[in-house]
Structure to design on (408 residues):
């Protein structure tokens, strides 16, 4: 009796590639301001600091250059938190003004997953701007209309 | 002429032995070797090396741990740890920053600006810093190095305000804490230290506060005299004004 195949065909790349995959789908278009608050001497701040670093990478910043990432260092051993202040359209969609993550007991991958689940989904869809037509496309569009005109001219 | 000829001892004369070449242009045979003589084969069999057999039932994790255990720590790490310890002990000001994503050009600009103010920007790995501060009084700064960081050293402690001024222009550098004159300070304490006036000004303030107690007593004792003198002054001024007014009226008339 042969056992049906179970398992993966490809091996996972580990936590680093999982983080990279999540990072690719981070979209901050719906966020006005991000405040990362942590006490550097507290425990379990590593994931918050890593998340802050990942938010400052050029690719993530490019999704919304207007979004400000502010880091708030406190000295009273408060548990770390990350606050996303949403823009108006996102606020209407989510019915909340801001989203807060208590990142004390979350690791970097979980933070990114939650961010993608709650924040990236609130990004407003992109508007299609005027597309510049190439010559071939223009001919195709105008070919149907100008084909009748052209034929008598050739004769 | 005879004494110019070099005299050599008879047995010291050497000559190279006659060379007879075994092979000439022919290709040597290594692919089909001759079967050795029995005696030779016996010696070869006895002198074959015996290697220990690899255990067949070891898991992948066991072999990996063994491989890592066999890795020797790079002695260069010790040298760098010593350098870190040197910097820590000989600088009056040590500031530790969290470093966000930054281009090399920008960090170079910051490094140059800091260097002009005798502030040295450095960055080391967490393991090396751990080795450097273990069992020293600086062990408390270890939690600051979990993520991307940089350290600024300065041999004199009056540079805190200049350091803050320069790093305020750099949004990617986030001040976490520092050590000033062997005292660990948090971020707020460090900023308060920058606002404080220098040592001389602080000493002058202390002297003023000490003198204030005695000065207060003197002031209380002299209060009545001073107020009397002031009243007299006002009265005298008023009289002088009246007399000048009268003299003016007379001259007008």
């Amino acid at each position: 009796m042969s056992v049906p195949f179970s398992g993966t065909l490809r091996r996972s790349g580990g936590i680093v590639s999982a983080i990279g995959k999540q990072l690719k789908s981070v979209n901050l278009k719906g966020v006005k301001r991000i405040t990362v608050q942590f006490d550097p001497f507290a425990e379990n701040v590593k994931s918050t600091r890593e998340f802050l670093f990942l938010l400052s990478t050029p690719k993530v910043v490019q999704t919304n250059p207007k979004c400000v990432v502010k880091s708030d260092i406190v000295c009273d051993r408060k548990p770390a938190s990350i606050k996303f202040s949403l823009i108006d359209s996102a606020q209407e969609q989510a019915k909340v003004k801001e989203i807060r993550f208590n990142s004390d007991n979350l690791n970097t991958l979980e933070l990114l997953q939650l961010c993608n689940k709650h924040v990236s989904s609130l990004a407003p869809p992109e508007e299609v701007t005027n597309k510049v037509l190439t010559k071939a496309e223009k001919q195709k569009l105008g070919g149907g209309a100008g084909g009748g005109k052209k034929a008598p001219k050739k004769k | 002429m005879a004494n110019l000829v070099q005299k050599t001892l008879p047995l010291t004369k050497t000559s190279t032995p006659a060379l007879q070449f075994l092979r000439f242009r022919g290709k040597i045979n290594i692919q089909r070797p001759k079967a050795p003589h029995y005696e030779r084969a016996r010696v070869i069999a006895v002198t074959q090396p015996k290697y220990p057999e690899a255990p067949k039932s070891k898991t992948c994790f066991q072999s990996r741990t063994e491989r890592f255990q066999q890795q020797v720590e790079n002695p260069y790490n010790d040298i760098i740890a010593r350098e870190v310890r040197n910097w820590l002990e000989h600088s009056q000001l040590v500031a530790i920053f969290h470093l966000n994503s930054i281009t090399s050009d920008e960090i170079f600009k910051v490094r140059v600006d800091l260097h002009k103010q005798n502030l040295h920007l450095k960055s080391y790995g967490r393991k090396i810093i751990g080795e450097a501060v273990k069992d020293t009084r600086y062990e408390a700064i270890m939690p600051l190095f979990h993520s991307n960081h940089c350290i600024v050293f300065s041999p004199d402690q009056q540079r805190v305000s200049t350091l803050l001024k320069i790093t305020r222009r750099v949004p990617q550098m986030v001040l976490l804490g520092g050590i000033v004159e062997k005292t660990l300070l948090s971020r707020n304490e460090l900023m308060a230290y920058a606002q404080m006036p220098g040592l001389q000004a602080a000493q002058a303030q202390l002297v003023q506060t000490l003198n204030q107690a005695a000065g207060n007593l003197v002031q209380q004792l002299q209060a009545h005299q001073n107020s009397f003198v002031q009243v007299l002054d006002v009265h005298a001024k008023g009289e002088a004004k009246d007399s000048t007014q009268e003299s003016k009226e007379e001259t007008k008339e």
Summary: The CA atoms of residues 87 and 99 of chain B lie 20 Å apart. Chain B has a mean pLDDT of 91. The domain at 75-194 of chain B is CATH 3.30.70.1730 (Alpha-Beta Plaits). The radius of gyration of chain B is 45 Å.
